[in-house]
Structure formats: structure tokens, C-alpha cells
Amino acid sequence: MTAELLIFYVLAASALVSALLVVSMKNLARALFLLFVTLFSVAGLFIFCLADFIALTQIMVYVGGVLVLMLFAFMLSNKELLNDLQKGLTGFFALPRWQALIITAGMGFILIHMAINMGSNLPKWVTEAAREGKIFTPTDHTEKHIGLQLMTRYLLPFELISLVLLMALMGAAHLTRKEPKP
Amino acid sequence: MVLSAALFSIGLYGVLSRRNAVLILAGIELMINAAILNLVAFGKFDKVHDAGQVFALFAIVLAAAAVAVALAIILQVYKYYKTINPEDIRQLKD
């Protein structure tokens, strides 16, 4: 039990520290590579929640797809894209840094306060499920479960999401195409 | 849950304070990941319907699609304005 707890805290700490570094790093490439670390640790935390299929999907989609896409997008584009970020301290996203920090601290305080208070009075269905033993145990095979549910109960969202994915694919291809010479 | 809340706050800070559109996208990714972490953590208690894990899958796929479209838009905006600082982009018409 203590080894598990130790691994959990190590994963959580690496996720938090690398996420903090991602948002505070000046260098774009280093920040994106640190995002790798964050996403890997979050995938490890998914395994701790007994959702190994979700963890594998996270690694494949995020680390394999999204981050490679981001890296390619800025490596293939211009080199000035890196340079002109360093100067111009006045222009933030309409907010100076200390205001962003205040808003974030307030939001974080509310969320963490809620999360700590939630420990004593969990929702009713959670306590009921825990009492009736309807929770996942480490020996369960979640993949078969998920596949069955995806094809029966959640068929409509599944199809809708495939449609959205198709639309995103066509939209991205349309946006990035070269304009024909007039 | 505390961890997820902290991750969400860091992502929010990233969105609000960065002046690079790609890193703002990274902050949004962090916030989405925090939400997915909550879904999965409570999905542990839902063995009958598996709602938490299935909707975590949906959220991952939606985030990936959103990133693809957003990167395409950023590249186009960069080609037009020669900057990816959202503060400098003031006009919407061409």
C-alpha cells in the first residue's frame, strides 16, 4: 500500500511541476516537451483510477497525435515564430500577469476548497455503489465492458463524435490548403 | 480531486497569461486533462454503466479534434498577420 501511495505522489508531483513549468517557460519547444511529461503522468494517474484503457488512449491520442502535431506545426512554420515571442512585454492576452495570477488563485482556491469538502459528503450514488460492491477492482477487464457499452448504450454519442471528427478533419485540411495562384 | 483542481488552475493561468497562441492551446489542453481526470476518478464507482470512462474517451477525442482545427487556424492567422500574439490581432475583417 505504501509503495502504491508513493508512486501516486510521485506521479502527481511530476504532473503538477511539469504543468507549472509548461505555463512559465519562455522557450516554446521546451514547454511542449514538458507537456509530454505532464500527459504521461496524467496517463499514469488514470491507471491508478483503474482505467487502463483510458490511459492507453491518452498516450496514443495525446502523446502520439496532439503533441506531434503541435511540434510539427511550429517546426514547419517560420523561424520568426519563435523569435518574436521573446520581446514585447506589454502585450498579454488583454491581462497583465499579476491579474491573471489573482484570478487563477481565486479560482484555484474555490476548486480546491470544494474538492477537500467533498471528501466528507460524497454524492449518494457513490456511497451506494461502494456499499453494494459495484466498483471496479484491479482484476476487472474494463476493455470488454467499455466496448459493449460503447456499441449499445452510448451508440448515439459515439456516432456523433465520429461526425465531429470528420468535420474537424475536413475543416483543418480546408484551412491549411495553399491558395491557388490567381 | 485536489490534484485535478490544481491542474485546472495552472491551465487557466496559462491561458490568461501567455502571449503565444500555441502555448495558450497547451493551457487549454491542461484544463481539459484536469476535467478528464475527474471523470475517470469518479468513473471508478460506476461499474454498471461505465459512464465516466466512456465520456472520458469522448472528451479525449473531442480535444484532439479541437487541437487540430485550432492549429490550422493559428497557422492561417500567422500567415496573415505575421504574429501569433493574440493581443496584436485586433481586426476580424480582411
Biggest chain pair contact, residues each? A-B, 84 and 73 residues
How many beta strands in the DSSP annotation of chain B?
A: 0
Low-confidence sequence ranges of chain B = none
Please bin the fraction of helical residues of chain A: over 70%
Could you tell me the strand content of chain B as a percent range?
under 5%
CATH architecture of the domain at 1-82 in chain A: Up-down Bundle
CATH level 1 name of the domain at 1-82 in chain A: Mainly Alpha
The end-to-end distance of chain B, rounded to whole angstroms, is: 45 Å
User: How many DSSP helices of chain B?
Assistant: 3
The share of residues in extended strands of chain A comes to under 5%
CATH topology of chain B: Helix Hairpins
The overall average pLDDT of chain A, rounded, is: 74
CA-CA gap between termini of chain A: 69 Å
Residue windows where pLDDT falls under 50 for at least 5 positions of chain A? 86-94
Average pLDDT number of chain B? 70
Task: Report the oligomer.
Answer: heterodimer
- Rounded to an integer in angstroms, the radius of gyration calculated over CA atoms of chain A is 21 Å
Task: Please give a structural write-up.
The complex is a heterodimer of chains A (182) and B (94). By secondary structure, chain A is mainly α. Chain A has a domain at 1-82: Four Helix Bundle (Hemerythrin (Met), subunit A). Chain A is built from 8 helices and no strands. In chain A, helix 1 packs antiparallel against helix 2 and helix 2 (28-48) packs antiparallel against helix 3 (52-76). The longest helix of chain A is centred in the middle third of the chain and has 25 residues, at 52-76. Chain A is globular. Chain B has 94 residues and is mainly alpha-helical. Chain B has one domain (2-88): Helix Hairpins. Helix content of chain B is 74%, strand content 0%. Chain B contains 3 helices and no strands. In chain B, helix 1 runs antiparallel to helix 2 (21-43) and helix 2 packs antiparallel against helix 3 (51-81). The model of chain B has no long low-confidence stretch (mean pLDDT 70). At the A-B interface, helix 1, helix 2, helix 3, helix 5 and helix 6 of A face helix 1, helix 2 and helix 3 of B.
